[in-house]
Amino acid sequence: MPLALLALAVGAFGIGTTEFVMMGLLPEVADDLHISIPTAGYLVSAYALGVVIGAPLLAAVTARMSRRTVLIALMALFVAGNAASALAPDHSWLLVARFVSGLPHGAFFGVGAVVATNMVAPERKARSVSLMFLGLTVANIAGVPVATLTGQHLGWRATFLGVSAIGLAAIASLALLIPHDRASAPSAGLRGEVAALKSLPVWLALGTTVAGFGALFAAYSYVTPMLTDAAGYADASVTLLLALFGVGATIGNLLGGRLADHSMRRTLFAGLLSLAAVLALFPLLMSTAWSAALAVTLLGMAAFVTGSPLNLMVMEKASSAPSLASSANQAAFNLANAGGAWIGGLALAAGFGVTSPALAGAALAVLGLGVATVAYAVDQRRTAPRAGRERVVAGHVPQQTETALH
């Protein structure tokens, strides 16, 4: 695999760290800025809103630019947002800074996925995307725990300065390792880029992302009370157990990339089925300490097996605007984050038990499988007539030739 993929992984590591670290630093931020923890929680939403808005918008307006230049510019915006977070004087300014930090997130992964796939042979495309996303999953193993500990001991502002330093390292890596490329060929502009997404297969692929990863976040958002109240773990053990989720996600990401290069659709179906099964078994697995640790690991593995095939599927369905499509998939991922957490919270608030969010997630995984099945059926209907026409033409030409010979 090209060494340039390492530069993309470094950027993904920084993005993954800043996205998830705020959840662990809410008490420190709330105490320092003299706000409540629920109010501090809006900082998580501000970042997600930045991703949803920035992902398709930045990918579309930079469509004609050199992708190497775009990646470096996006990472520079990421550094600026995190530096502004570290220097924010109050909650309002921190909200704005977190929103700015989220803007380049989706576009970086979207453009990065296109760059990654263009550097390898067609049969290794999914693997190249999985190696870029390796930075995101490793962030859950090392980046987030280390950044959280840094914030707890040196202050939360030190964490965001550290993330800014990771961003600067990513910029240097991108400048050194990503090959120079020319600006993209002139297209129909922003309207043409957006028009490329106006197809049913693209929206079905995005819908699969929302439902599939919504299943993950319905359970993962409430995994801490499951581990403490159902499995009996102490609060101090939760950080280590969440690192196990990162281990599972890393394994699933690499496995999904390898399998998707052989069969993208089968890998997606198998991943969604596995995710539904793991979530359905959560009430049982959370009954003992050892099986709860296994459940967290399997959750990360099953969910991230689907990452690479989903991203490639969206890019293929919108082949005339792959950067925009891949970026839109990142926006869908963050919608899944918010929507899944909301649905899991409804199950919890209804009094169905501490593990009920996992069962709600299992239902979402089944829904995702249904959407993926519909997408497959639509693909079959669109390709079947074309294949039929090819057979008619192939059978007719020799007959004409034979008549001419007589």
Automatic annotation (TrEMBL):
User: GO cellular component terms?
Assistant: plasma membrane
Q: What molecular functions are annotated in GO for this chain?
A: transmembrane transporter activity
Q: Where in the cell is it found?
A: Cell membrane
Per the UniProt record, which residue ranges are transmembrane? 42-63, 70-89, 95-117, 129-148, 154-179, 200-220, 232-255, 267-286, 292-312, 332-352, 358-378
- UniProtKB keywords: Cell membrane, Membrane, Transmembrane, Transmembrane helix
Work out whether the entry's keyword set contains Transmembrane: yes
What topology does it adopt in the membrane?
Multi-pass membrane protein
Q: Where is this region: Disordered?
A: 387-406
Report the Pfam families cross-referenced here: MFS_1
The main place the protein resides is membrane
Domain named Major facilitator superfamily (MFS) profile: which ranges? Answer: 4-380
InterPro entries reported for this sequence: MFS (IPR011701), MFS_dom (IPR020846), MFS_Efflux_Transporters (IPR050189), MFS_trans_sf (IPR036259), Tet-R_TetA/multi-R_MdtG-like (IPR001958)
What is the name of the protein in this document? MFS transporter
What organism is listed for this UniProt entry?
A: Streptomyces curacoi
Q: What is the lineage of its organism?
A: Bacteria, Bacillati, Actinomycetota, Actinomycetes, Kitasatosporales
